[in-house]
Design a protein that fits this description.
mainly beta, two-stranded antiparallel ribbon
Length: 120
């Protein structure tokens, strides 16, 4: 469940305070993965190893992808689905890894259910 909020996307290798994951307060999605080519006589690892997964960071904001007048989507009563078309992402220092990575966002209304309130 996502809490309604507003935030900008991380800008990899940006200027000043947003240059790395450690420095940013903006949004990103962290994916642990291996990226390799197994179509040759030997496996070539582009990211990660045969025994380890390594993180890739994908910039993410709380607005839609509209070029002009972006609208907030992380609001009450929205169900948000992100579909990743994997080509890479960024290391924690903002270095590109097999870029670009593209994603689509689908926003649908949230359906309330009826039932008893649960104690917290």
């Amino acid at each position: 469940m996502l809490m309604p909020q507003t935030f900008a996307a991380w800008v990899p290798k940006g200027s000043g305070v947003d240059a790395t994951i450690a420095q940013t307060t903006n949004g990103y999605l962290k994916v642990m993965c291996k990226i390799y080519n197994n179509s040759t006589t030997s496996t070539i690892y582009y990211h990660g190893t045969s025994t380890t997964f390594e993180p890739i960071y994908i910039p993410l904001s709380s607005s839609d992808n509209a070029a002009t007048n972006p609208q907030p989507i992380w609001v009450a009563n929205n169900n948000i689905t992100y579909t990743l078309n994997f080509g890479g992402g960024y290391a924690d220092d903002g270095t590109p890894i097999l870029t670009p990575i593209k994603f689509t966002t689908e926003v649908t209304g949230w359906t309330d259910t009826t039932g008893p309130d649960l104690p917290m």
